[in-house]
Amino acid sequence: MKHGSLLNYLRRHEQSLIGNMGLLLDMCIQVCKGMAYLERHNYIHRDLAARNCLVGSENVVKVADFGLARYVLDDQYTSSGGTKFPIKWAPPEVLNYTRFSSKSDVWAYGVLMWEVFTCGKMPYGRLKNTEVVERVQRGIILERPKACAKEIYDIMKKCWAHSPEDRPSFRVLKEQLVLVAQGLTD
């Protein structure tokens, strides 16, 4: 993948990308399709973020870095002791109980979408992990990026529903994002 990580690509090309909502949304849709594939095959990634996606020629984006991925039989995986996970991409059930599922990946995907539409800004800025945990537990979510349409931000917010059951599946997210993308081209 000749352009390296999605995070670095977004940061390097911010000037040309920031106004191109269609391209940014397409990148999100590609990641969503990859995650829908994992979800369908009962895998959870557990470390989804822009830094763990790769960009190839013609803006092809692939999900990568499966170092923390797990195959799950009963839809969730509770980590026992010592598991490190990225706080700024973690939902309440991971922060409180280290309980991972496809729905915790959906939360992280919402943060990845935020990263894409800010062209690689750090979620929650300079806040310390303890401050991020406190905000997430109080239901305070990331603000809408300037370059992000309300319809897209509304989908991000669905990813950040406090309860995992209230978050959409990747399959549903993909359908919703494709509809928004069609609306942009009409």
TrEMBL record:
Protein name: Uncharacterized protein
Highest taxon of the lineage: Eukaryota
One GO biological process term: morphogenesis of an epithelium
Organism: Phlebotomus papatasi (Sandfly)
Keywords: ATP-binding, Kinase, Nucleotide-binding, Transferase, Tyrosine-protein kinase
InterPro entries: Kinase-like_dom_sf, Non-receptor_tyrosine_kinases, Prot_kinase_dom, Ser-Thr/Tyr_kinase_cat_dom, Tyr_kinase_AS, Tyr_kinase_cat_dom
MF GO annotations: ATP binding; protein tyrosine kinase activity
Any Pfam family: PK_Tyr_Ser-Thr
Gene3D superfamilies: Transferase(Phosphotransferase) domain 1
